[in-house]
Each structure stands twice: as C-alpha cells, then as structure tokens.
Amino acid sequence: MAGKFELYTDNASEFRFRLKAGNGENILASEGYKQKASAENGIESVKKNAGEDARYERKETAAGKHMFNLKATNGQVIGTSQSYSSASGRDNGIEAVKKNAPTAVVEDQTG
Fold first, then answer.
1. pLDDT-based confidence at 2, cuts 50/70/90?
2. DSSP assignment of the chain
C-alpha cells in the first residue's frame, strides 16, 4: 500500500496533516494552520522537498531520542517526525518520507 497524507482538523479547530507510510505508521506531522489552504500548501511543500536530503534537520531531543524536521527552501519547518530510540531508526524514517511523500494521495478528513 502506498503512503498517504491525512488532512484533518485538530481539537483547537486548526488544520493539520500527517504523512503515513504504506503500513499505516505516522512518519511526519505538520504544525497547526488557521486556513485549510495553508495546510494544503504545506502538503505540496512536503512533496516538493521530501527528496532533497539537505532539507532534513537531524536532531537529538533533550531526552536523548532522535528526530528530524523537514524544512522548506526558506528554512521554515514543514513537518516533524516522531521520536526514535536510535539514529538509525530516525534515518529510516527520513527514507520513508523520501519514498512515500512525492506520490502520496491526500485523504481529506475535514468533512
């Protein structure tokens, strides 16, 4: 099964998206957007930037976990990963975004 973007509304009535791998695992999540169109633009930005390794900011959390941010060409964060227990797990997450994002369909759950 191919990856997909889920576009949804959160508890604060903001629009968000998450990228799920073909196995259903969340591999990237967005910030909240006030406008649906802004969230849709965020999805397009993820699709456009996902293939470029230089767009990934690899980080370690204060708790010693590993995570990454995907950034647009202007340096703005457009997606954040979950926390991984190892750097290799994080790197596998990055590869999953690279593989799934460019062709992922958008499932609009906003009603």
1. confident
2. ---EEEEEE-TTS-EEEEEE-TTS-EEEE---BSSHHHHHHHHHHHHHHTT-GGGEEEEE-TTS-EEEEEE-TTS-EEEE---BSSHHHHHHHHHHHHHHGGGPEEEE---
